[in-house]
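Action item from last week, closing it out:
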Amino acid sequence: MSENKDPHVAESGDSGVHAAKFVYDFTEGNKDLKDLLGGKGANLAEMTNLGLPVPPGFTITTEACKTYLDSGDEPAALRDEVSAHLDALEATMGKKLGQADNPLLVSVRSGAKFSMPGMMDTVLNIGLSDKSVQGLAKQAGDDRFAWDSYRRLIQMFGKTVLGVDGELFEDALEAAKEAKKVTVDTDLEAADLKKLVTKFKKIVKTEAGRDFPQDPREQMDLAIHAVFDSWNTDRAKLYRRQERIPGDLGTAVNVCSMVFGNLGPTATSIGGGTGVAFTRDPASGHQGVYGDYLQNAQGEDVVAGIRNTVPLAELEQIDKKSYDQLMQIMETLENHYKDLCDIEFTIERGQLWMLQTRVGKRTAGAAFRIATQLVDQGLIDEAEALQRVTGAQLAQLMFPRFDEDAKVEKVGRGIAASPGAAVGKAVFDSYTAVKWSRSGEKVILVRRETNPDDLDGMIAAEGILTSRGGKTSHAAVVARGMGKTCVCGAEELEVDTKRRRMTVPGGHVVEEGDVISIDGSSGKVYLGEVPVVPSPVVEYFEGRMHAGADDADELVEAVHRIIGYADRVRRLRVRANADNAEDALRARRFGAQGIGLCRTEHMFLGDRRELVERLILADTDTEREESLKALLPLQKADFVELFKAMDGLPVTVRLLDPPLHEFLPDITELSVRVALAESRKDANENDLRLLQAVHRLHEANPMLGLRGVRLGLVIPGLFTMQVRAIAEAAAERKNAKGDPRAEIMIPLVGTVQELEIVREEADQVIAEVQAATGTELKLAIGTMIELPRAALTAGQIAEAAEFFSFGTNDLTQTVWGFSRDDVEASFFTAYLEKGIFGVSPFETIDRDGVGSLVKSAVKAGRETRPDLKLGVCGEHGGDPESVHFFHEVGLDYVSCSPFRIPVARLEAGRAACTAKGSDHR
């Protein structure tokens, strides 16, 4: 195919008419066609191009899937295209699909653009029937292998394509093993498996209301449709929501000639097996041989975790020729993709076949380690390394870990599949995990092995513990992708899901609801709650551990290098939301370049609440002035400490914002107190006045009532007292040889006239303080943009404002018409489940709505005042995806809670590199 042709179309004769192309041979694609061929198909094509041993096959595109899902029927041209590619495959293989005496068998596997492990469907051994199973046995010289392959097809096909309950097949298989008095299915003989096939066919007939199809093409067509349909299963939708994968991409379908790891040895060749390999450890990032291998098995057996695997390194003793070839291929793929690769392979009687590769999912720690390793190897540069990690991964590394010095009761150890310290009540099914989690309980999901139907429980749980499976099992792969703590293959733990209990060595029984702790970094399992300590990464940001120190591990060094590069390239500055000196100092240690939001209302709580009550209850100007006079020195002292902590850095102080009734007692509680006092004839005059004030200040919708700038306009002296406190504190710090850089922010402005009035009063107060102290003060005055009208009239407001800070929390509420406290509890879950939101607009900026207003306000504000400073101080300031948006629209800084500052620093650097371009897949 020439480079300038659209891969979505194929030429049709000399007419110049182009028809959509829905099927690609593995020799036609490449790794850059993931949108069209899905990740699996694109990478099979890439491996074919590299000359690696890939079984022949073809890929049906995501476009065919989208047409099928939209219309309910496959594209008109698809059947003929599939037939043409099947004919070519049959010619290559020298046999026909399902041929009675020598059948070609194929797998039908899903493969979306983004990896969704275990979420969609696969069917192996298509083409087997009552007739062709005899031919397969004769050609292979192995009756057991043929009947094992046939029972696998009926089991997979029945569950995946015909919707039969998979437990029915599992129960029949367990019954067959019990009758034979064996524990593993490999000990069943050909005669046993032949009986099992008969049993499985009866299950299909009873449950599906039809016979298992004997026509191989019907099997293939039905399997293709089942894979298309699996894109919209509940578990696939749930996974996409969790991973923020768009729902309109569709999946490709890969039809691949079968190779058999369950084909036994002959006199001239060794047997086979199947495995999953990683070019580096996906849990730690360390280089070496990592993966699982299972002899006499087919591919799905490894991922399912039904049988425990052996470490990949043992393959060297089992089949050295295949092992050496696999090591060479792994090196080739990692150097080609310049990243950790996840590989699926099968060995058929000594012949190695590659079934899949992809850039592998990894833990947060592995992501940072691998990125810096690849830089040191010269495979990628620092800019690309920055794109290989995310703020969400950095946040994971900042979570606490178990205290190694604590007194613990260890009851088992499995494979450290996904790191972290998880504590919770043991539950034994997904339904209970979700139910208890929604009730506020922290739970650990305990299973023998997980399958795709457990996804909602895995999301709800703090961690996952299985007694079967390895680092490449379903539980391990999905947990790593979600950043969940996971321990797999803890064989010494006897999990009984039906009786909802787990028996540990020594006979102790863990019942459902008992608390356990699991350590995904060591694989250890403990009874009870193990205490936690700060992570090394937090210790590094706190300044208690240095990257070059002897006790600093390589993870801290990797974080140090990457965050250092992010700081060098980012344009966005990062400030903190902090209201006191303690938080300010911590923010500074975490890398804050100032305070973007100091909420002064937090300074009016505790012992000072009584002074605010006196201000509210004041009947005369004199009483009001006395209350304000009492608050002034307290406010000033707060600001002195804050300016001292952030010396030399900007501190944006927001004047009082919330409604005054928030500083008064709860109306119900106060009413009861007054009523009880009156019943005892012991009425308290102050309580009566407070109750009257609460009634007077009561508002139907306080969020849109008397708050923000409106308070400053309605209550004389309130804002001027705060401005005076800020100015006097700045003067005191300046006279103490400090470098205070205070900025005064007026909240909830909706029109420039409000700002002009408050600004005029503030300028007057600042001038008075300058005159009284003999100190020159430069105090910038600006406003929060948190109302749609403010955003729409930003050009006018900029005439009176030296800076804007977007209050995206309130702006989101007012744009959407949401009261956050009400809607998140009442219907957000339904909105997320129905796909109305991909993510809460309070978590990630709504680009189309709120974002559009921010963008237009930036443009209008800077047209009026080119040097207008622009920032954001809502929670979105620490959200990774939102940080990229704020970079794109040209803000100067983001502000977030101290703990999220490293995340914002990293994402600001990533945003800068993304804008310049990156080769990251």
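Closing note: The two ends are 23 Å apart (CA to CA).
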